Amino acid sequence: MGGDRCAAAGVGPWDQIKQDPSMWHFGFGGRDMERLVAGRERIYLDRFWNELSRNPKRFDEAKRQHYSALYAQPGSMRAAFAQFLAFSQDAADNRTFLAQGKLQMPVLALGGEATFGPMIGTVMWCVAITLKCDHPGLRALDHGRAAAGDDRPGRRLPASPFVS
Q1: Distance between CA atoms of 130 and 141, rounded to whole angstroms?
Q2: How far apart are CA 97 and CA 40, in angstroms?
Q3: Residues forming beta bridges with residue 147, ordered by sequence position
Q4: For residues 153 and 35, what is the distance between their CA atoms, to the nearest angstrom?
Q5: Among residues 106, 104, 122, which one has the least CA distance to residue 163?
């Protein structure tokens, strides 16, 4: 279970996250959506580059043309939409998994300031007994288990046990 560019589906504040108007693409897909985007892949992709990237200028015109052409190939948008449409099944699978209990091993949560930031810690706290992080907005959480030889909940831990 994990979040790549978003929180883990079905975990913690998932319902609030997917209702955020800026996350409309989470439920966007299917034949009608493919037809709406066909020939307009650049418009669809510009939204991600312009609104969701940390630095939109990193996607210069040449890169935008390149990726727009790739996504315009047959089946490409269907595959892109499938990633988001799979969230419903991911949410069901994650809830089933969590019904068996939280993860027993330490979990490292990394939230970038341009993505989910400290929210990723909130989400991962819902799935792990021990959460370690080195984000100013997050704190290490320990639910009944000693971590790194310190059994005080809520203490800040460096990421060094995971990252050198």
Answers
A1: 6
A2: 39
A3: 150
A4: 52
A5: 106
Residue 110 neighbours by CB under 8 Å, 6+ apart: 120, 133, 135, 159
Q: 3-state DSSP call for residue 147?
A: strand
Q: Which of 9-13, 16-20, 29-33, 58-62 has the lowest mean pLDDT?
A: 16-20
**What strands lie across the sheet with 107-108, from one edge to the other?**
107-108, 130-132, 141-142
Mean pLDDT computed over 143-153: 38
Lowest mean pLDDT among 57-61, 89-93, 124-128: 124-128
Tokens of 127: 């799935």
What's the mean pLDDT in 68-90? 92
158: tokens are 């460096």
Q: Please report, for the chain, the start and end positions of each structural domain, with discontinuous segments joined by +.
A: 20-88
